[in-house]
Amino acid sequence: MNPPEGHLSRQVAGAAFSIPSSLLQALRCARHVTVLTGSGISAESGVPTFRDAQTGLWSKFKPEELATRGAFQRNPKLVWEWYAWRRELVAQAEPNPGHLALVELERRVSGFTLITQNVDGLHQRAGSRDVVELHGNITRVKCFEEDQVVPTWQETDETPPLCPRCGGRLRPDVVWFGEMLPADAIDRAVAASQSCNVFLSIGTSTLVHPAAALPFEALQHKAMVVEINPCSTPLTTRAPYALRGAAGQVLPRLLQML
Ligand code: OAD
Questions:
Q1: Which of 41, 69, 117 maximizes ligand 1 atoms within 8 Å of its Cβ, making it the mutation to test the pocket?
Q2: Which residue out of 7, 99, 123, 135 is catalytically annotated?
Q3: How far apart are CA 78 and CA 65, in angstroms?
């Protein structure tokens, strides 16, 4: 199951490409497949990525004004409203063929772990059962003071709305810059990266740590690492296979050939 020795990243471009047979064979034999997704997998559902030049959220907005604890303390209304806008975008989006292909892959392999950096919940809505969410979920809120999830809340004249328990401000249950990832999620993600035979890195720029370290962790533990992304990332030249294309096209093709 090891990547072929001395094998440089094999970049395969175009929607009609054939998937290398050695990759298909590795997937067929794999006892455990681990998948890491980033915002690119939801791009075809109309959810913007972060760093794509024209369309990425961070090309239009400043993360330090919207995605840190300090930003929320300075301007809670602005931050709440920005996340409310994104929550609405996500509510209107539908899972795409890339999300659905991963549901099918989970059915076909004996051991499967899906790790996502996405907060949009589209994997779960597609039917993926056990999703390791590294950066939280935008559809949930928690109390800024108590750091506890609040199951239901009401929009009132107060923005952000207040915690029904303690009266503190509510915030989205996502990980902001400078915050720790949920310990159980990162522990499971590292363990699954270290124990898998095949690791798929899909639609992520591989720039934000600790998630960005996971494919390299898998490489160190002799997994066959495959990147699916239309653009290069720091992983591209290290991954035995880099399938250049949109996840919504490449993944269904991969499943079709498996
Ligand atoms: P980025 O915006 O950094 O990267 C998105 C990646 O998806 C890029 O490499 C694109 O080339 C690729 N991409 C675009 N369209 C695609 C498609 N149709 N199919 C496959 N790939 C496609 O997003 P992330 O890597 O997810 O963190 O960003 C990581 C974290 O940075 C996010 O979770 C978020 C952000 O700040 C927090 O908010 C904590």
A1: 117
A2: 135
A3: 9
pLDDT digits (tens, 9 = 90+) for 126-135: 999 999 999 9
pLDDT band for position 4 (cuts 50, 70, 90): very low
Residues of 190-201 as b/e, b for ≥16 C-beta within 10 angstroms?
Answer: bebbbebbbbbb
Residue 37, C-beta contacts closer than 8 angstroms, at least 6 positions apart: 102, 114, 115, 116, 117, 118, 123, 202, 203, 204, 247
**pTM over the 0.85 mark:** yes
Question: Could you identify the atom of ligand 1 that is nearest to the CA of residue 50?
Answer: 2
Q: In this structure, which residue's CA is closest to atom 15 in ligand 1?
A: 40
Distances (CA, A) of 239 to 5, 21, 84, 228: 12, 16, 37, 10
Q: Taking CA 207 as the corner, what is the angle to CA 204 and CA 210, rounded to the nearest 5 degrees? A: 95
Do 133 and 104 meet the contact criterion of CB atoms below 8 Å apart?
Answer: no
CA neighbor of 49 nearest in space, from 119, 101, 109, 113: 119
